[in-house]
Automatic annotation (TrEMBL), chains A, B:
Alphabetically ordered keywords of this record: Oxidoreductase, Plasmid
SUPFAM superfamilies: NAD(P)-binding Rossmann-fold domains (SSF51735)
Upper taxonomic lineage: Bacteria, Bacillati, Actinomycetota, Actinomycetes, Kitasatosporales
Matches recorded under Pfam families: F420_oxidored (PF03807)
UniProt cross-references to InterPro entries, sorted A to Z: NAD(P)-bd_dom_sf, P5C_Rdtase_cat_N, STEAP_metalloreductase
Natural source organism: Streptomyces californicus
Name of the protein this chain belongs to: NAD(P)-binding domain-containing protein
Entry keyword annotation includes Oxidoreductase: yes
Domain Pyrroline-5-carboxylate reductase catalytic N-terminal as annotated: residue spans: 4-101
């Protein structure tokens, strides 16, 4: 399976090795590959450990994507709409796994945007009309995404998306990573639910003093 | 212990018998006691089963409250600020356990108000300046509040409030009802977190086809 990851932040650096260990061919897209490989960017450590990773521009990464594979939107929330818009034609027909949060993590106050009557997942689906956007992983710290057992034996990961086949493909990947409780909430509109949980994630992490926790739907 | 419940809806009808079985003296407040006992109001069934329950006006219920006990705000979300405001003087010095949601359940579309930069819990604390507001139970169906084991062996109930002693009193009550995982999120500002989870509660209940579930923080 060919997996393209857009973005070189923490989510990319934790998901890329996990995908490689599942046998995926992984291509990483970034704004400026030379800048990412220069200076002290933490991506350099990943590149040194995994020379099989290819780092290219966003446009080249999308051009390399396979419609039977997966494209992961791991660009940070506030910036991702602007970065994704020019890629809309290339992403048509692709499954886009979106893990973004509608929050600027550099802000001290927690204000989500969009929220309540819209979500970043829906905005991305509108920007990428021909793509099949599946929202997932956004209720979890990046460390926990590829390693559910890092926090406990059984917690829940959520799916939101309008295309059943796309959700099935993402669910299969999640199960390969060890996720046992994959809950399909419904259409991409339900991204509002998981994105609004961000406030609970932040307050819980402050109360517990750790990012290593997960939400389980007990039923 | 003396417990005053404001509101005669589903939350009152499920919590009142639970408090009675813990040995509390329970007084219920409503806008118009005569109207509540006339016609087909479902409160009549509760009153018939539990003649020891006293039903009085909101003002008389607050006058009957005990500062060593608890006042429960079980008035439905959008209406409760208007109903509570005239009771502010009487509620000074009391612990007010607030279970409200910032949502009009008669609306087909899910729009929370307030949300994101404010919460109903904070608005109630501002309206009841001398009271000690503790937000809890608002991530759960009314049926689950007094019976955590209705959905599984172990899930989480959250507390938000600015007064530690008030939260300790509410936590003691929750433990008496069988709650084992009581998570103190912090000040009343963290009511934003649990109130914004309402969207997740609604989408999960739609996905599962039941109200009988709970959120567990797995850590």
């Amino acid at each position: 399976m060919k997996t393209v990851i857009l973005g070189t932040g923490e989510v990319c650096r934790l998901l890329a090795p996990a995908f490689l260990s599942l046998g995926h061919e992984v291509v990483v897209g970034t704004r400026d590959p030379e800048a990412t490989l220069a200076g002290n960017h933490p991506y350099r450590l990943l590149a040194a450990r995994h020379p099989e990773l290819r780092l290219v521009s966003f446009a080249d990464a999308v051009a390399a994507a396979d419609r039977s594979g997966l494209v992961v939107n791991a660009i940070s929330g506030p910036a991702c709409l602007e970065a994704l818009a020019p890629l809309a034609d290339g992403l048509a027909g692709h499954v886009v796994m979106d893990v973004s949060s509608p929050y600027d993590w550099s802000r001290p106050d927690v204000v989500l945007d969009p929220v309540n009557t819209d979500s970043l997942g829906e905005a991305i689906q509108r920007a990428l009309l021909g793509a099949f956007v599946v929202k997932t992983f956004n209720t979890l710290a990046a460390q926990v995404m590829p390693r559910p057992d890092a926090v406990g034996p059984d917690h829940t990961v959520f799916l939101s998306g309008d295309d059943e086949a796309a959700k099935a493909r993402v669910a299969e990947l999640l199960r390969a990573l060890g996720w046992r409780d994959v809950l399909d909430l419904g259409g991409i509109v339900t991204a509002r639910a998981t994105e609004m949980m961000l406030r609970m994630w932040i307050d819980t992490s402050r109360a517990l003093g750790t990012h290593l926790f997960g939400f389980k739907i007990v039923r």
